[in-house]
């Protein structure tokens, strides 16, 4: 009876030590977040971008792929608020549709990178030994390559497309997640609640996914929110270089590439997508700062 009671106590200790899902949306974290006004502004801008991307067919005033040679390089006017590009396509319509590509790449590639990085980092930190050594060398090797050069090579070999860009970015930028998760799990695996979970017979998989990984998701979420903007820049760079999203698909990087030959005569072709990229990346960075404050236990309520 005493053994059963001890086992029940250890199990309760292990379960109580593990945070329940949805911690960020609890009132304490939300209060911390809304105190950081730039983060709230960033969240508002991102939600606005999502709404624009979802309703693009309704919001776009013209067909983003149909050009009018009579309007080549036309300046902003009442009918075309942001002007026309070098082949007469409406810049505003292409900008709206380009928001879809930016958000798809940023969010999906981040999800892929998080999944791979958290898994690799958790395995390395929990098991240690030769598994840690092997996986750490893989992470170090990946981080040794210049990211943009690796992405250009992958896109050139496989062939440029939106799907290839998402997969290529997601499978090459996960190393930072792995390093963060590995370090945190190595510091947690000797804690009392982990030893309690192991003492009551929990399998390694249950300990890892039920007790360890939920305790390291805070830094991962912060890193992800700060990384989305960087991934949008990577996609824009690939499209600008011609190895990203293939024309005529509207992407902000592709719009920049279209305007580089006309920067002196039709500067708005490059200025418009450049401003869109800047605002979007800034919004995600501000959101990331707000999430970091919300998840920081040192912050006052």
Cα distance spanning the termini: 44 Å
Low-confidence spans: pLDDT under 50, at least 5 residues?
1-25
Total number of helices: 13
The secondary-structure element order is HHHHHHHHHHHHH
CATH superfamily: MetI-like
- Describe the largest sheet: none
CATH class value:
Mainly Alpha
The share of residues in extended strands comes to: under 5%
Mean pLDDT: 83
Give a written overview of the molecule:
The chain has helices spanning 2-17, 27-35, 37-54, 56-59, 91-127, 129-144, 147-158, 162-170, 175-188, 192-199, 204-241, 252-259, 268-294. With 301 residues, the chain is mainly α. The chain has one domain: MetI-like (MetI-like fold). The protein is elongated and about 75 Å long. It starts with a helix and ends in a 7-residue tail after the last helix.
Summarize the helices and strands and which ones pair or pack:
Blueprint: H1 2-17, H2 27-35, H3 37-54, H4 56-59, H5 91-127, H6 129-144, H7 147-158, H8 162-170, H9 175-188, H10 192-199, H11 204-241, H12 252-259, H13 268-294
């Amino acid at each position: 009876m005493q053994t059963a009671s001890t086992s029940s106590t250890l199990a309760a200790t292990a379960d109580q030590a593990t945070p329940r899902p949805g911690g960020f949306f609890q009132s304490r974290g939300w209060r911390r977040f809304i105190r950081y006004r730039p983060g709230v502004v960033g969240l508002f801008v991102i939600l606005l971008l999502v709404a624009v991307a979802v309703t693009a067919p309704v919001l776009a005033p013209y067909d983003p792929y149909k050009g009018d040679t009579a309007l080549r390089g036309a300046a902003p006017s009442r009918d075309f608020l942001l002007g026309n590009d070098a082949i007469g396509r409406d810049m505003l319509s292409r900008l709206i549709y380009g928001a879809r590509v930016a958000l798809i790449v940023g969010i999906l590639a981040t999800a892929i990178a998080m999944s791979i990085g958290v898994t690799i980092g958790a395995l390395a930190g929990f098991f240690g030994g030769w598994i840690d050594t092997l996986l750490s060398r893989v992470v170090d090797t990946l981080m040794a390559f210049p990211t943009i050069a690796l992405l250009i090579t992958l896109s050139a070999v496989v062939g440029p497309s939106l799907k290839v860009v998402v997969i290529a970015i997601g499978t090459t930028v996960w190393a930072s997640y792995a390093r963060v998760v590995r370090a945190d799990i190595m510091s947690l695996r000797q804690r009392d609640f982990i030893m309690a979970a192991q003492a009551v017979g929990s399998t390694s998989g249950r300990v890892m996914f039920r007790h360890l990984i939920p305790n390291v998701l805070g830094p991962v979420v912060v890193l992800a929110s700060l990384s989305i903007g960087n991934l949008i820049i990577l996609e824009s760079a690939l499209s600008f270089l011609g190895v990203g999203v293939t024309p005529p698909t509207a992407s902000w990087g592709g719009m920049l590439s279209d305007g580089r030959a006309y920067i002196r005569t039709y500067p708005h072709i490059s200025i418009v997508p450049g401003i869109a990229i800047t605002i979007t990346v800034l919004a995600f960075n501000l959101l990331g700062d707000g999430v970091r404050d919300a998840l920081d236990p040192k912050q006052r309520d």
